[in-house]
Design a protein that fits this description.
Blueprint lengths: L1 H20 L8 E8 L9 E8 L4 E15 L6 E7 L2 E10 L10 E3 L5 E2 L5 E8 L8 E12 L5
Antiparallel strand pairs: 1-9, 2-8, 3-6, 3-7, 3-9, 4-5, 4-8
Length: 156
């Protein structure tokens, strides 16, 4: 009797595990981590963008958190800010936040959304850097973005 119960429990566990293992990572939504280094904003101009995430069908951007890991600095730069949005609305999720060396308030984390952002499929969520001089002169800097995505079930 005990062996039969054990086999039933084991079979249920294997079935449950196989269903979870076969579910695509993006299907359930969740957090996405994106690390952006100074070298990715490499334009020889005062602004440049990096794609952080591209939405899929039925997705909602719930929250974006930016963590400054290393202050941005180098060359003749005296200011450096990063905002988060999408094409045509580069500050939709975050207005420009100072990430330059010497920021006096010590704030390294920023919750950058104020609420859900429903975007059409294939919308690129972008980080836009703006500096006082060409961004290509930067020699240091790194931020990590944590993007919380939820997904509506198809057919709703």
């Amino acid at each position: 009797m005990f062996a039969r119960i054990f086999r039933l429990i084991l079979a249920a566990w294997v079935l449950a595990f196989s269903v979870v293992a076969s579910t695509p990572a993006h299907a359930a939504g969740g957090w996405r981590k994106v690390v952006v280094k100074y070298s990715q904003f490499e334009a020889a101009s005062t602004t440049d963008t990096v794609v952080l995430y591209t939405t899929k069908k039925f997705e909602t951007i719930e929250r974006i958190v930016m963590r400054r890991d290393v202050d941005f600095a180098g060359g003749s730069l005296t200011t450096y800010t990063i905002s988060v949005g999408k094409s045509g609305a580069v500050t939709k999720y975050q207005a420009a936040i100072d990430v330059f060396t010497g920021v006096s308030n010590g704030n390294t984390n920023s919750i950058v959304t104020t609420g859900p952002g429903v975007e059409p499929a294939n919308t690129e969520i972008i980080a836009t850097a703006t500096g006082s001089h060409n961004l290509s002169t930067a020699t240091a800097g790194q931020v990590t973005f944590f993007i919380l995505v939820s997904e509506m079930p198809p057919g709703i």
